[in-house]
Amino acid sequence: MATATQQAPKVPEPLQRIIEARHHDPFEILGRHLEGDRAVVRVFLPGAESATLVEASEPFARIEGTDFFLWEGSASKVPERYRIDWIDASGEHHVHHDPYCFPPQLPDFDLHLFGEGRHWHAYRFLGSHLTDVEGVSGVQFSVWAPSAERVSVVGDFNQWDGRAHPMRVRGGTGVWELFIPGIGQGGFYKYEIRDRATNIHVKIDPYAQAFQERPQTAGFICPESRFRWADQDWLAARAESDWQHQPFSVYEIHLGSWQRGPNGEFLNYRVLAEQLADYVTELGFTHIELLPITEHPLDASWGYQCTGYFAPSARFGSPDDFRFFVDYLHRRGIGVLLDWVPAHFPKDAYALARFDGTALYEHSDPRMGEHKDWGTLIFNFGRNEVKNFLLSSALYWLDEFHLDGLRVDAVASMLYLDYSRNAGEWIPNKYGGNENLEAVDFIRQLNTVTHEQHPGTLMIAEESTAWPAVSRPTYLGGLGFSMKWNMGWMHDTLSYMEKDPIYRHYHHDLLTFGLLYAFTENFVLPFSHDEVVHGKKSMLDKMPGDAWQKFASLRLLYTFMFSYPGKKLLFQGCEFAHGAEWDFDAAMDWDLLERPQHEGIKQIVSDLNRLYREQPALHQVDFDSSGFEWIDCHDSSQSVLSYLRKDLSGQQIVAAAFNFTPVPRTNYRIGVPEPGFYREALNSDAALYGGSNVGNQGGVEAEPVSWMGRPYSIPIALPPLAGLILVHEPMSADALVSETEGAITDADLPDAVPVATEAS
Question: Residue 394 contacts by C-beta under 8 Å, 6 or more apart in sequence?
C-alpha cells in the first residue's frame, strides 16, 4: 500500500481496470497468454501473500503494491490447464486450477435460442451447475446482464470479494459466464454487478435452484439430485387422461399455515407430504394446489412476491425434499398443482429489480412497469430473454418436480394495460386499445409450449374479467389455458349467501345468472384463500343468522357447489368451517374438529367429494350445456332452485334441489324426465352433519304426474337451508310398462274451463 510520502507504482491501464474491478473482459489480461514460444501467466489473487505455478514448480512474481502475480517462461512449462498454489495471510495453502485458463463453456446454439426467446430449458445452462471440464471439477456460473460493465461471482468461497472472480461476457448476447474449478456443492453465492454508471449491485442469481432460508438471500450451489422417482405409472396415466370428463376437486393449501411443528416451526416437505396425503385422501380431493412455494423473502406475501423462480422455498427443505413431496402424493393418487406468478415481481434491491442497473426484467416506464396496488414491478413480456426466463421457469416445475399443472396468478393484470389504472396512467397499444398484446402472445406461447412438452398437465387461469376464450385452444384464437377460475360465480354466490334469507327472494338472479355463461369457458368454481382474509370473514362467518343457520347455510353452499357444473376448489380450513379468518403466520385451529358442528362440515365435504367422484353425471359434462338442465329456476318467491345433471351418454341423471330459506318445504313437487326411484344420495340437513334430519327416508318414487313440462314428477321434502342430491335409479322394463299404462295424460284431464276476466 502506498504511504503519504510514496506513490503507488504505476501499472498498465488494463491491469488497473482489473485491480479496480471494472474490466469488461478479464480474460484479455488474466490467464495464460502465448508470445511465440514464451508464455505469460497473470493471476489476480486478493489476499494472497505468495503464489506458485504448480506445473512449473516456479513462483509467481508479485507486481509491487498490487495483488497481481506474474509468471513468464517457456510455454512448454505451462499446460493449457494449470494450477496455482497460493498462500493467504494466515499461512493456509490454496491449490486449484486457474479459472482463466478455461475456454468459454456455453454453446453458441443455447445462447442463440435464448436470445430468440425459444430456449425452453434455459435453466440448464444459466445459473450455477456442478460440472467437469476436461476432467476438472467445479461450478459453471452464467447470468444474463446485458447492460453491465462488469459481473463477478461472489460467495463464501472468495470472501464475497468482487475482485476475485470477474466473468466473461459472450459477445452481444448479454450473458456472462465463468467456470470456477475446485469449488463444489453447498456454497452460497451471488453476483456483483457494476453498471455503466459505476454503481455496484449485489444480486441473487435469477436462475438459482435453491436459496438460503430467509432472511438470508444468497443462492445455494445445489448438489446433483439423487432422488429416484417412483411415479411413472401416475405420469403415464396423466399423459393419456381425459381430464375434461374426469372429477377434478382441489384442496388449496398454504404450506406455512396448514400445519406447524410443536414449537410453531415450519414442517419439512417430507413430513407435510405424509400428513397431507392422509388428510386429502380422507376428504376425497383429487388434487392439492400449493400457494406459491417459489422462494420469496416475505412470509406476509404468501409467496406471491417471488424472487426465486426456479427454487422451492428453503423454509420447508431442499429441492429433493420437494421432489419427495410430489412423488409421495402421486403414489397416493393425488395430483399436485402450483400457484405460479408471472404477472409481477417485488422491488427488493437484491433481486430482479433493475438487475444490471437498468430496467432489465421490467419496463422502464412505470406506466407499463409497475403495479401500484401491490408495490411490485411488471415483467417486460416484449423482451425475448424475459419471456424465456418465465417459460423456462414454468417448464422447470413440470420437468424437474413432475407437477401436474400451474395455476397462473393475476392473469387479468397481464392482459390489460389499464389494469387498476386511471386515465393518463397507462399507454395504449399500437392500435390504441388497452390490450397488452405482448402479454397475450406470451400467454399463448406459455400454454402451447407447456401442453406440448407435458401432455396431460393443466394450465389454470385466475382471470376475473370477460376476456373471451381464455380456456379455448390458441389455434381457435383462445389463450390456451386448460381452465379458468369462475370468479363471477364465486362473487355472485357468496353475495347471495351473505344475505339474510328473508331478503334472498329479491336476489334470486344471483344464483341463476351464472348459467348464462357457465359453458363459455372451462370453469373451476373457487372458494380460495382470497375469500377468507382482509376482513372478508371466514366462510362460516359469511353466513347470516344464528349458529345453527350458519352451519346449515355452509352445508347448503357446499352441496350447491359440488352439484353445479364446473370443477371444484376449496381452501384449507373451509372444509371444517374454520372460525377465524385465515392467518398465514400460524397453523389452523385444528381443535375445532372436536366440536360436532365442525366435524359435520368436514364429513359433508368428504361425502360430497365421494359422491362427485362416483357419479359420472356430476363430473363428466362440466363444460357443456348437455350436462345441465334446469328443472325450475323461477321459484324466487320460495328461494328454491332445482336442476338436473347428466353424464356423457345422457342416460344417467342426478336431480338436485335447494331450499335457501329456513322454512321446510313439504310435498314440494319437481318435474323429472324419467320414471324410477330417485335415491336421496345426500341430504345436507342429515343429522350426521349436524342438521335437523328432515328428509325423504332414502328417496322418492317418481309419479306419472306431468309437472313443469316433464312427464313425471316427485314430491319431496325440502329441508330448511339445505340441499338434496337425488340419484336416479331406472325402473325395470315390466314396471315401466305397467307405469305407462297407468300414467295420467292430458286426455284424462277434464275439459279446459274458461278463465274469468275482468271484462266478464
Answer: 340, 342, 406, 446, 449, 450
C-alpha–C-alpha distance, residues 333 and 88, integer Å: 56
pLDDT band at 11 (very low <50, low <70, confident <90, very high): confident
Asked whether 107 and 115 are in contact (CB, 8 A), the reply is no
H/E element holding 731?
A: none
Please state, in angstroms and rounded to a whole number, the distance separating the CA atoms of residues 73 and 53: 11
Q: Which three cell numbers stand for residue 526?
A: 373457487
Which residues fall within 8 angstroms of residue 100, CB to CB, at 6 or more apart?
Answer: 26, 27, 30, 31, 32, 43
| pLDDT for position 699 | 96
Q: Could you tell me the three cell numbers for 477?
A: 384464437
Q: Tell me: pLDDT of 512 over 60.
A: yes
Grouping H, G, I as helix, E, B as strand and the rest as coil, residue 61 is: strand
Mode of pairing for the β-strands spanning 148-155 and 93-97: unpaired
Tell me how far apart the alpha carbons of residues 691 and 682 are, in angstroms, rounded to a whole number.
12
Q: Read off the pLDDT of residues 585-602 as tens digits, 9 standing for 90 and up.
A: 999 999 999 999 999 999
Nearest of 408, 293, 290 to residue 340 by alpha carbon: 408
The angle that helices 437-453 and 384-401 make with each other, rounded to 10 degrees, is 30
pLDDT average, residue stretch 486-504: 97
Let me know the angle formed at the C-alpha of 233 by 232 and 238, rounded to the nearest 5 degrees. Answer: 100
The pLDDT tens digits of the residues spanning 334-343 come to 999 999 999 9
Q: Give the model's pLDDT for residue 733.
A: 54
**pLDDT tens-digit readout, 148-161:** 999 999 999 999 99
Q: What is the pTM of this model?
A: 0.92
Average pLDDT, the chain: 94
Rounded Cα distance, 660 and 498, in Å = 11
Element (H, E) at 398: helix 384-401
Retrieve residue 50's grid coordinates. 505468495
Q: Which amino acid is at 1?
A: M
Dihedral sign for Cα 303, 308, 314, 320, please. Answer: positive
Buried b (16+ CB within 10 A) or exposed e, 694-713: bbbeebbebbeebbeebbbb
**3-state helix/strand/coil string of 361-373:** CECCCHHHHEECC
555 vs 540: CA distance, rounded Å = 10
- Calculate mean pLDDT across residues 37-62: 94
Q: Please, which residues bridge with residue 627 across strands?
A: none
Torsion of CA 552, 558, 560, 566, to 10 degrees: 170
Q: Which residues are catalytic?
A: 409, 462
**Residues present in the chain in total:** 760
Alpha-carbon distance of 323 to 229, in angstroms, equals 8
Q: How far apart are the first and last CA of the chain?
A: 119
Rounded alpha-carbon distances, angstroms, from residue 298 to 75, 241, 718: 55, 38, 49
- Closest by Cα among 525, 451, 441 to 484: 525
DSSP codes joined into one string, 300-356: GGTT-S-SEEEEE-GGG--HHHHHHHHHHHHHTT-EEEEEE--S-EE--TTTTTTTT
278 in Cβ contact with 602 (< 8 Å) = no
CB atoms within 10 A of CB 241: 16
Confidence bin at 758 (pLDDT 50/70/90): very low
**What pLDDT digit, counting tens, does each position of 205-260 carry?**
999 999 999 999 999 999 999 999 999 999 999 999 999 999 999 999 999 999 99
Instruction: Give the residue from 338, 328, 333, 336 showing the smallest Cα distance to 237.
Output: 333
Cell of 584: 398465514
